[in-house]
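Help!! Second protein's tokens look totally different from the first
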Amino acid sequence: MQFIDLKTRHQLIGDKINAGIQKVMEHSQFILGPEVREVEEKLAQYTGSRHCITVSSGTDSLLIALMALRVGVGDEVITVPYTWISSAEVIALLGAKPVFVDIRSDTWNMDETLLEAAITEKTKAIMPVSIYGQCSDMDAINAIAQKYDLPVIEDAAQSFGATYKGKKSCNLSTIGSTSFFPSKPLGCYGDGGALFTNDDELAEKFRWIRVHGQERKHHHPISGINGRFDTIQAAILLEILEVFPVEVQKREQLGQTYSEGLVLLDGLETPHVSKYNTSVYAQYTILSEQRDEIHRSLKEKNIPSVSYYSVPLHLQPVFEKLGKKAGDFPISEKLSNHCLSLPMSPYLGTQDQKCVIDEISKILN
């Protein structure tokens, strides 16, 4: 059993993908070729955003967003400690300070009730993370941000395709950022990412920054990076985007089946999806004090499982200078100590999923 099945999709649409790659080989516009512009148009249309700017990775999309907002030395950016390190490392790379607020105990996303207390005169932006496939309470976060005239960056690396109150993830705040890493809900065959905004000026800055801050040839009004999206990856993504809506439906169905099969087990917590959210279940994650036992038992049956973010960011050595300690963010620490992600992808077979549910049921009964 595969943790994330990437092979089955390629077996289904591999011929179309190969044809798309061959087309790129023939026109040989390998950097910012026509497929890049085409996929940007389709991604913007999908999210309802005015602008989509593809970039070299999800991490670079966050970095470019912060650069466009002129985040730098002495500034603070608020995010969460329960996430992949890129959410905070891009802040530190610019010389700014990551300021952590804890997550909610139900959705595992940023606790908006703690947000206002973390804002200072040095705060330059707020970066909620749409963890495991569902969005934060963006209306509440946006309202607080508006009160203090702060931009909001949705780190939607795991939630592309999800909705919040009927609106698509990546079109919920000042800036949306996502990743096309192969294991993500909308993944290509290498690194890639995208930025979304309805702000014309920000979109223009994103485009400059991804080509070394270049507005036009030999004219660089701002500093930038080499952050361009590869044309071959754009061609691949165009074909995957065609089947993506069906994959989103399959993810929702699989998530519901997992929850129905596991929700009544003692000592286990299943994901809670808010009534105003849908989730794309980038990972299907459970919580249990018997996590390690479950992991070992599943491994004995050749069922893969992964403990993501088993050390929260405030306890990572690289952020030691922030002066945070164990106990400062109890909900994040609980998840780090108890989380276990199960096999999940649109092509997870019915029998394989039943096997996972049955094995966990045996362990906990």
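Here's the second one for comparison:
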Amino acid sequence: MYENTLSDFFKTIQNHDWITHSHICIYRAILELWHQNKFVNPVPISRLILMSMSKVSSNATYHKCIKELVKGKYISYVPSYNPYFGSFVHILVLSFTAN
């Protein structure tokens, strides 16, 4: 499951020129949290933890990448505006099609 999702991600991003190393690092960190959550969706996330895991140090870059990963249909994101509760991410099934 995990390996297929990561493999499909790397196959899919070959067709998306907008993907940067920051997107890849954040997506990979989300997958690690999904793994720790026993592959159950949604995955609870914390911006600070995810930024630390992905080595993304800018809040602007983090939010931009999350927004673009949602737009690209890699993840679905449910933000929490409560400081005591984290946000949630759903790992979406990627439909890889070769060109």
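Reply: Different proteins will give different token patterns, so don't panic. The mean pLDDT is 89.
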